[in-house]
Design goal:
168 residues; alpha+beta; 5-stranded antiparallel beta sheet; 9 strands; 17% helix; 41% strand
């Protein structure tokens, strides 16, 4: 079923609800987080688990120069598979904790068209996320720093959280 994470209601409950691939980095503020977790709660069977992952914010990466284009490898874009020079520009708003990544694809051969794509990610710091989950009635059952169940520590790139709704 397709639907908006903030509104979807399937009318069914499940023992496990997952939100993989950093979906919650597209939940941008506390109000949206509350709505998203209401959706999760509406679909969790009693005692069920909600598992999701988000990246661990990297302060050094968040402090990148927003005027600089950080170059990556050349890429081929569909449908013609033409070769493009690839770069990214990063801008971080410390108040909203939203990082905007502008991906720039510049055609190498004439006519040298430039295509841009913008992606925004809400940065969720571990202690903040723990407090917000608690506030919204979820407890963290387990928390990992990688997909091999390693510890969440200063070397972790991801936060993987196994949670469940607290019954009142």
């Amino acid at each position: 079923a397709l639907g908006d994470l903030l509104e979807l209601r399937l009318g069914r409950r499940f023992p496990l609800v997952i939100s993989p691939f950093n979906v919650f980095m597209h939940v941008y503020d506390r109000r949206e987080l509350a709505l998203a977790l209401e959706t999760v709660r509406a679909h969790l069977a009693p005692g069920g688990y909600f598992v999701f992952d988000v990246l661990v914010p990297d302060p050094e990466a968040l402090a990148r120069d927003p005027e600089r284009v950080y170059r990556g490898r050349n890429v081929r874009l569909p449908p013609e598979r033409t070769l493009h020079r690839y770069g990214e520009r990063f801008e971080y708003d410390p108040v909203t904790q939203i990082q905007t990544v502008t991906m720039i694809f510049e055609e190498i051969d004439p006519p040298h068209r430039v295509v841009t794509q913008t992606l925004t990610h809400r940065q969720w710091f571990p202690a903040e996320l723990e407090a917000l989950l608690h506030y919204e009635g979820f407890e963290i059952v387990e928390r990992f720093g990688d997909f091999e169940r390693g510890p969440l520590d200063e070397y972790s790139e991801s936060q993987i959280l196994v949670t469940r709704a607290v019954t009142p």
